[in-house]
Amino acid sequence: MITAQRLAVALAAVAALCGACVAPGSEGAPRPDAPVTPHPTSLAPAPTAPVASSSTTTTTALGVPIGPEVPGGETVCDLYDGDVTELGAVASDLIVEASGLAASRANDSTFWVVNDSGNESLLHAVGADGEDIAAIAVEGVLGFDWEDIAVGPGPEPGVSYIYIGDIGDNLRLRSTISLLRFPEPDLNDPPAAISDATTIRLSYPASPEDSEAMWIDPLTGEIFVATKRQQDGRAIVYRAPPAPAEPLEPILLHPVAEFEFPDNGQVTGADVSTDGSVVALRGYNEVWMWVRTDLSYEATLAAEPCLAPAPEEIQGESLTFLPGELSYVTLSEGAAKPLNLVPVSRP
Predict the structure, then answer these.
(1) Which CATH class is domain 4-18+38-342?
(2) What global pTM score does this model have?
(3) What's the pLDDT band for 25 if we cut at 50, 70, 90?
(4) What is each CA distance from 12 to 5, 9, 202, 319, 346, in whole angstroms?
(5) Which of 253, 269, 291 is nearest to 38 (CA)?
(6) Distance CA 134, CA 128 (A)
């Protein structure tokens, strides 16, 4: 296990390397939530030619630069050289089925972790070296199948919110799924419990789905949920508009993209970079990335993804970008599993 001092040096070096990789983000207006027809996309990376959307920085209709600049003929995945650094094993003996991981925006060098179904409704705060910082009860809820966690904007401007995705449904029986939303706790004075979590109910347009991945767009506040894998080998990304402060009725999800998997792949986690420029989906053994071409995810996800490095993990279901960077961290289910850092290798 690396020491905190060595970790700080390593992360500072990674931040210096990656600082020039990400274009600054900006606030954008939410998009209309009109239904769309998803475009089937293969999740197999292009064998030789890069995707056009990953070769240059493009500009949205709002004048917002989206995407890192990479040399012509390369993709965002070429910013990684495949190195993986174990930051430290998760120390808490309560974290045995980590199904979601999110880097805190309000607390330095901290990750939020949630367990899969069958565990207590706890929000875990974990240090960047795996230190057990806090286990905070989320009161008034009974987690059916917590499968992911995200940090993003919410109803109050300037406040960073946590979203816990109770979205799993192995038997496809649930008429609605839900997200729990609440402001990030301040770990300088951690609460014993979260008592004011808002429940956001979501419904699929047709039949129930089994999902394990979600993210909140930092530019629009929209909610995205990705199904794990349908029986015919496809997966679908759904979108919902930003949830109001007090959502009373279920919010209808609309499909924005559809994928076909090679080798029985499955989506087990997701995240978007903190400036909204890069989207990542992970499977048990893969990490797929898209460079955001504009505010429309339909256009972005219709392109072929590139294949980023995937740490070797027993059952990897979690991925998060570091704040302000394209370096990312993953975590597997199981006891005392390491936080694996995949750093950007060059500017």
Answers:
(1) mainly beta
(2) 0.84
(3) very low
(4) 11, 5, 39, 20, 14
(5) 253
(6) 13
